[in-house]
Specification:
Rossmann fold; transcription regulation; 12 strands; alpha/beta; 6-stranded parallel beta sheet; 370 residues
Length: 370
């Protein structure tokens, strides 16, 4: 059974020199600055989370490390602030969720799912966005530790490894969301994007399409790579060569990037009969470009998106899309985090993989024009 310390983050302390400890006054009446938890961590050569564990959950700290930290506490005369204990009691009612971009409806739905799980446990939620930026991720971690947040759901895309390492160093409980590969000594919830890419392209092949384009996103994203793998697998299963799928990469997963990709599709020497997009925002941008060029969807070119965000069904041409259960993933991740923080070392970590579903709409229902 995997066991990971479910630690209370380091207590907030007053800045050195900001308060006086009456017991620390010298014979000459000079007042020494109050020793904080950061001073203890620095002197002992450990993280803030380790000091917090020694104070709050000593059973999860190795005996030698615990003894060293306690010796430093005794030597420095560290006294835990009562205010920090009160703060921890309040803040343990809050969990955090870190996502890439709340402007993407997929992450909005995921955060909503986390909030639903928190509400079931009478907890609140703090949403942090921009997790792809290392500086922003570091700022979020600082906020989470200083505000004594109970734990976090991490949906931080390509930066999840860096974020996980930082959370481990600071002993903050976490669950990884939107990653299909399991994390060691942690719970995770993912979606089988290889299966999703396979379903999308299989559908197009079954509709008679033999010349396809994959409008992809940044290749550093595992989800983008997995959807490509699934698409190529579907071609192989149909006896079609990989060359039947041409890739047009985009720097971002946005409508603007999709519209630019749509213009590139129009400029290809041989126009494809179908376009598979790495997410719905890209697909909506492609639809705009095709519409402005006077092409009919799906008669001239069929389009498939991914995520099945709310806007997909209400597009001018309702969009066929691979539905990823974002809210369900958020709920599951939130419940796993709450269970982990409630049971600590007795919690058994699990990896949950949800299955996507192809939702067929008007953007693919006609046969290819040629």
């Amino acid at each position: 059974m995997d066991r990971r310390p479910s630690a209370v983050p380091a207590a907030r302390t007053r800045a050195r020199g900001s308060g006086a400890d009456p017991a620390a006054a010298g014979s000459a009446g000079r007042v020494r600055p109050r020793v904080g938890i950061k001073d203890v961590a620095q002197e002992a050569g450990v993280s803030l989370g380790t000091v917090s564990n020694v104070l709050n959950r000593p059973e999860v700290v190795a005996e030698g490390t615990r003894a060293r930290v306690l010796e430093v506490i005794e030597a420095l005369g560290y006294v835990r602030a009562e205010g920090a204990r009160q703060l921890r009691g309040w803040a343990s009612r809050v969990i955090a969720v870190m996502v890439l971009d709340m402007a993407n409806p997929f992450f909005t739905a995921l955060a909503t799912g986390v909030e639903q799980a928190a509400r079931e446990a009478d907890l609140g939620v703090m949403v942090c966005t921009g997790a792809h930026d290392p500086a922003e991720a570091a700022r979020h971690l600082s906020l989470i530790t200083s505000h004594q947040v109970r734990g976090a759901v991490l949906a931080s895309g390509e930066g999840v490894g860096r974020t996980v390492a930082a959370f481990r160093r600071n002993a903050v409980p976490f669950v990884v969301a939107d990653q299909c590969a399991p994390q060691p000594a942690a719970c995770s919830v993912g979606i089988d994007d290889v299966a999703g890419g396979r379903a999308a392209v299989r559908h197009l092949v079954e509709r008679g399409h033999r010349s396809l384009v994959y409008v992809s996103g940044p290749d550093r994203l595992q989800q983008v790579r997995d959807r490509r793998r699934g698409a190529l697998a579907a071609l192989g299963a149909a006896g079609l060569p990989p060359a039947a799928l041409r890739e047009l990469p985009c720097d971002a997963l946005t409508v603007a990037a999709g519209k630019d990709a749509g213009h590139r599709v129009l400029g290809l020497p041989v126009r494809p009969t179908a376009v598979f997009c790495a997410n719905d925002l890209l697909a909506l941008g492609v639809l705009q470009a095709l519409y402005e060029a006077g092409l009919r969807v799906p008669d001239d070119i069929a389009v498939v998106g991914y995520d099945d965000i709310e806007f997909a069904a209400s597009a001018v041409v309702p969009l066929t899309s691979v539905r990823r259960p974002a809210a369900a993933m958020g709920r599951q991740a939130g419940r796993l985090l709450i269970e982990d923080t409630a049971h600590g070392g007795a919690h058994t970590h699990s990896h949950v993989v949800l299955q996507p579903e192809l939702v067929v709409r008007a953007s693919t229902l006609a046969a290819p024009a040629r």
